[in-house]
Design a protein that fits this description.
Elements lengths: L25 E4 L15 H6 L1 H7 L3 E4 L26 H14 L3 E6 L9 H6 L13 E2 L20 E4 L4 E4 L14 H16 L4 E4 L23 H8 L13 H10 L3 E4 L6 H4 L10 E3 L10 H15 L3 E4 L8 H4 L3 H15 L5 E5 L19 H4 L45 H5 L5 H14 L1 H4 L5 E3 L5 E6 L2 E6 L4 E4 L2 E8 L4 E4 L2 E4 L3 E10 L1
Parallel strand pairs: 1-2, 1-11, 2-3, 3-7, 7-8, 8-9, 9-10, 10-11
Antiparallel strand pairs: 4-6, 5-6, 12-13, 13-14, 14-19, 15-18, 16-19, 17-18
Bound molecules: alpha-D-glucopyranose (GLC).
Alpha-D-glucopyranose binds next to loops.
């Protein structure tokens, strides 16, 4: 059963029977920032329900809800105090059921976020574990004796800053935390932890959840030898440096097989497991999505990609090759700057972000947008003093706080706080937000990102010749252009200035990310920062 360090990765089989989640598009709702119905400044499930038609009209197939379980909120819900309930301030279980039914009635599936790597320090398991070395749930968590000098057991750093170990005075041992000290790590080498989560999965599948986004799916296990992390070469690319920095407790090679039992449970409910596998090497990410493990995994290096043709090409080519249709392509998420900001911000970033979504949305796999991406939002500007993300509030020297992508959804310029809440939102809307960013204003403008996004998703659904195959052939249509052919569709993304491309056949423009695209015979006129999808009618 145990995979050793050098065991070869099993490659995913190219084609498996079609399931509901094939060819789907996902929509992430960071619930706290979507819509507040209770007047506490925090978004809630009835707020999602209030806008369920906005979601369905977009043409997405599933919603992924960030954690809505009871939680003291040190990491805004990623510190779960009870895995089998819905927080009261999110609307409780009744609101969950109502939303589930409303989504299902519109043909939209619902994914929850499961956080298996750690609990809140207020979870009953941890409160028990803290009682002493012999406490019933002690071995649910990772405890180690101090180093001989009394310090932490090794030099591992937490992702959120500082050591990954917290000293517990009462028992004289340290416990491990990949994230905050308020997020003690569970010990997945303990079979009782595995059993507990089997039951949690079933609990939600029985309540009609269609799947889970699996938080930090590459976490879970730690190096059993507790080896210190060696000094990291400052010249390493940042993604690789991060892999190495956290390699004591992330991406351990025996982790992917943990999902084999989850897969059996999920498949018995026809549910989707979509992993957040935050690792830079696509070949390693692919080891999580073999036939008997997770169904899908996010390819997160895209979140660190700038508007650079070669960078995008290098990352996508290898990823597409190894993923065989099983990678999810994040447009934005609550953990990294939004696509619009990564690509330059403002109107330019917005245009490029739309082009990027047309590109990744045409690849085999599952494009997933964060609520607000359909409006072309870039990050909301939040003053450091107003920060809420623990990465910012707990580290004076860190600039990588995540509040920018988490600012509240702008609905209507004529309502208080752009329609998000009657009262001051938990996080500012962003000083750069204006009327043009809102859903109401974009509804009235057929050229708005909102309408373009709807047109793209509708067109994509109709491109059956493209969706039918996971085979991609990369085309060389020009230096500034990334182009590919999938089925009968040519996809071309122009990173440079306006140009003409010679298509491999005559075709018709199916959809484009801007108005600057036109097909005449085999000629594709393509504006800057634009992606076009052309259905070939006849090969040249
Ligand atoms: C994941 C979540 C992130 C959270 C962390 C700890 O990376 O996406 O928001 O802070 O896990 O649970």
């Amino acid at each position: 059963m145990h995979q050793t360090q050098d065991a070869p990765a099993t490659a995913p089989a190219p084609h498996s029977p079609r399931r509901w989640y094939d060819d789907t598009v996902g929509y992430q709702v960071y619930v706290r920032s979507f819509a507040d119905t209770t007047g506490n400044g925090i978004g809630d499930l009835p707020g999602v329900l209030a806008h369920v038609d906005h979601i369905a009209d977009l043409g997405v197939d599933f919603v992924w809800l960030n954690p809505v379980y009871p939680s003291p909120g040190f990491d805004h819900g990623y510190d779960v105090a009870d895995y089998r309930d819905i927080a009261d301030d999110m609307g409780g279980m009744a609101a969950f059921e109502e939303l589930r039914d409303a989504l299902h009635a519109r043909g939209v599936r619902m994914l929850m976020d499961i956080v298996p790597g750690h609990t809140s320090h207020t979870h009953a398991w941890f409160r028990s574990a803290r009682q002493g070395r012999d406490a019933p749930y002690r071995d649910f968590y990772v405890w180690r004796d101090p180093a001989p000098d009394g310090g932490p057991p090794n030099n591992w750093e937490s992702v959120f800053g500082g050591p990954a170990w917290e000293f517990d005075d009462h028992s004289g041992q340290y416990y491990m935390h990949r994230f905050l000290p308020e997020q003690p790590d569970l010990d997945w080498r303990n079979p009782a932890v595995r059993d507990a989560f089997d039951d949690i999965l079933r609990f939600w599948f029985e309540r009609g959840v269609d799947g889970f986004r699996v938080d930090v799916a590459q976490g879970m296990l730690a190096d059993p030898d507790w080896t210190d992390i060696p000094e990291i070469d400052p010249d390493l690319p940042p993604d690789e440096a991060a892999d190495l920095r956290f390699s004591g407790y992330m991406g351990r090679p025996e982790t992917p097989e943990l999902y084999e039992r989850w897969r059996r449970i999920a498949d018995s409910y026809d549910a989707l497991l979509l992993g957040e596998v935050y690792l830079s090497d696509p070949d390693v990410v692919a080891t999580y999505i073999t036939d008997d493990r997770l169904h899908r995994a996010f390819f997160l290096p895209l979140q660190h990609t700038t508007w650079d043709r070669d960078q995008v090409a290098t990352r996508l080519r290898r990823a597409v090759e190894v993923a065989q249709g099983r990678f999810a392509w994040p447009q934005s998420s609550h953990d990294d700057p939004r696509a619009g900001s990564r690509f330059g911000g403002g109107d330019r970033g917005r245009r490029r972000a739309m082009a990027f979504f047309h590109l990744v949305g045409a690849l085999p796999g599952t494009p997933v947008m964060l609520a607000g991406d359909e409006l072309g939002l870039d990050d909301g500007q939040v003053a450091r003093l107003d920060a809420e993300d623990p990465i910012t509030t707990r580290n004076a020297d860190r600039e990588d706080g995540r509040d920018g992508s988490r600012t509240p959804m702008p609905w209507d310029p004529d309502l208080p706080n752009l329609g998000f809440s009657e009262v001051e939102p938990w996080l500012p809307l962003g000083s750069n937000r204006g009327a043009d960013d809102t859903v109401t204003v974009q509804e009235g403008d057929p050229d708005s990102p909102l309408h373009r996004m709807r047109r793209f998703l509708a067109a994509r659904r109709g491109l059956v010749g493209m969706l039918a195959t996971d085979e991609v052939a990369w085309l060389d249509l020009g230096d500034d252009v990334l182009a590919l052919r999938r089925g009968d569709v040519v996809v071309a993304c122009n990173f440079g200035s306006a140009t003409h491309l010679d298509l491999p056949g005559t075709g018709r423009l199916a959809v484009a990310s801007s108005d600057d695209a036109a097909v005449t015979g085999t000629d594709l006129a393509l504006g800057r920062d634009t992606t076009a999808l052309v259905v070939l009618e006849e090969d040249a």
